Give the backbone structure.
Amino acid sequence: MSEAKPAINPWFIALSVVLAAFMETLDTSIANVALPYIAGGLGRSYDEVTWILTTYLVANAVVLPMSAWLSRVFGRKRYYLGSLVLFTLTSLLCGVAPTLGFMLSSRILQGLAGAGMVPVAQAILVDTFPPAKRASAFALYTVVLVTAPAIAPVLGGWITDNYTWRWIFFINIPVGMAAFFLSSRLVHDPPAFAAERASIRTNGKLRIDGIGIGLIAVASGALEVSLDRGQIDDWFGSTFICWMLAIATVGWIATVVWELCLKEPIIEFRLLANRNFAIASVLFFLFGFGLFGSTTLIPQILQSLYGYRAIDAGLVLGPGALVITLFAPISAQLIQRRIVSARLLLTISLSIVGAAMWYYSSFNLATDYAHYALARAYQGLGYGFFFVPVSVLAYSQLRPDQNNKASSLTNLFRNWGGSFGIAFITTASERREQFHQTNVGSALASTSQQLADRATAVTSYLVTKGYSGPDAATAAAGYVYRQLQHQVDLLSFTDCFRVIAWLTLAAIPLLLMIRRFKPAGKAAPAH
């Protein structure tokens, strides 16, 4: 059966939906750097306003797994446009929030609305472009997913420094209006989607899986709360976090069992029986883990150890986004023209990303901006060759009526990867800091003379600058201690990079299990 061709250029549709996806992805982290300003503006403590991030992520996590089902209930275009309107309206409410309670309520609604925008946008791209040109659409989608988290800290810092924190929410309004105007005129549900919508109705009546919805909401919310608040509340030292982890574990097991028993589940876990889709899902998880983990770690290193401003630290991430923008379209052409197989391109991608992480782990306190930017560019080169082949792999053996369900699952795994990656970075860096602090402390006896000589040299220098003897000695001791602490912090950060490197490289053998498939394209096979 031939596929229905859109009456308009599919690239217009692509640009309209990725605009909204970019806005939603940007909002997952743009508020991070503004939290101290928001705390001051609302008259609350910093710890209290961190719930601004948590409430958004939890609401997002609850709806994301159900986005495909909600698309079938309301119609994909109607659900997408409704989410876009609600997201834009709640952005306005966040910007004018007079109290923390009002802000948190608005962020919950914003998270609920934003959860469906990215997976639905991906599903629209898959259905809009024929298989022969789908890789190019994935290249555009790659640029959006990677660029938004990279520029969010820079943009958020610049806005709060030059205007007010409220504008980090207000900027969504014109973008949302433009995305709604374009999407309402360009996006349409494909003919095959009508049959998919009919599958959830019996004798014309909508079947609502209340138990499934409840299980997904509880399991998703508990998992996101535990990951986001775990390190803050000391993980297993907190009864609250222990309960959240237990509820999440039991909840997801129950969700999987329940959904597998249904003919028309909310989450189609049966898609994971397709080997290529299952491998792609694992790779999406590792993509989120490595990208969001490193995007969180690098600014933290630069600000705490090198004294960079938030904007300057964010600029280090820029080269990586630029390289991805340049090479994602190239990877699309390599796939479409069948010059390189998806398996080989993914092997190259994972090898480059793993090598970039090892390169990060070799840095010291004298490393300058150029080396960090170069390492990020290497990482971007690897990810530039990643997303297109893994997306092609995910949909390589699926029917058109499964595209919508598949986009929900792939985005769920990517979101999980990001949440686990950020939780790992915040936890491992602090735990490894304690480990290295103990090791360095135990080794001080053998280097005490060198430390004494160093402290004496610094004391003498400060005396020449006008310090009194006692003040110079105290300042010198503090300086030497800070240098040791910085070394300890750097060791803990490099350990995190090595773990990400090992996880990335460990995925390469998984590629050997990919089932052969023939991607659509213009060129004939070379053999």
Remarks:
- Residues 1-6, 521-527 have pLDDT under 50 and may be disordered.
